[in-house]
Amino acid sequence: MRARAYDKQTEIYFQSEVFAKINTGWYEKQLLLMPTEDGGVIKLFDCLDKSNPKVPIVLINSITSDDPTEWIHIRSGSVDKQLADFSELLKDDVRFFEYYGYPWLFNDKALLVELLNNQAIPFIGSVFENKYINTKINGWNYISSSGDINFMLHETHWFHDSVLKELRYTSGSYVNDDKRMLPYDCVRKIEMHYDSQQCNAIEMVFEGVTALNLRPFGEEYTSEVSEASLFLEDAVIFFCDGGVDRIDESYSGTWIKSYSLRWRFVE
User: Fold this and answer.
1) Domain stops at, among 102, 131, 160
2) Is residue 107 part of a domain?
3) What residues contact residue 219 under an 8 Å CB cut-off, 6+ apart?
4) What is the pTM of this model?
5) What is d(CA 267, CA 264) in angstroms, rounded to the nearest whole number?
6) Do 245 and 230 touch, CB atoms closer than 8 A?
């Protein structure tokens, strides 16, 4: 499971694998790896900015929602009841009524208490370094830096002489066999396939999609792309099928915003 987060203290956006979720709803926190110059720190981050209780702001956005199969789920049964054996070890203002994460962390009570009491753990040399699970898929190129963008655009010839062959969006919401609605857009994924005269076909997968502006070409035009643009800002991806010099949501063609993009060539 991966997420995109904002740290109010340092005012930076970053992406991380999720090690655990503490509590739910108003009190939810997630255990993330925040990058630093000396290798990063493991810390619990609030999911909501509660500075304005009437309009809370989401600080952690889901990129991939598949929870690790080995995670455990433990609850006290009430938001006002601490999990057993923890109440005497936590600061007065710390709530801990639910744990959803790796069992090895829950069993390391001293480490978990340190994190719950708002301590940051240096990643290098910690147990997290050996336990780190990267959910990125082998065989794909991920866009995480300007260098990744330059490499993709160079290898695809900026999508020159390419055409969008197929686009598919998956929300994650559905109605089950009992006709019970599960209206939770927990996937939010776009899969795109471009054919090109300049290189092999290009497969792209956007995850954590926040916007899709699909503008098919009219019958009076042909649909080949002359140049595509790609930007990464505040851990947000912006892709469009035209040449622009910045993120531009007023662009008249097709554009996408998401928290992640991976791509590869296909035969």
Assistant:
1) 131
2) yes
3) none
4) 0.90
5) 10
6) no
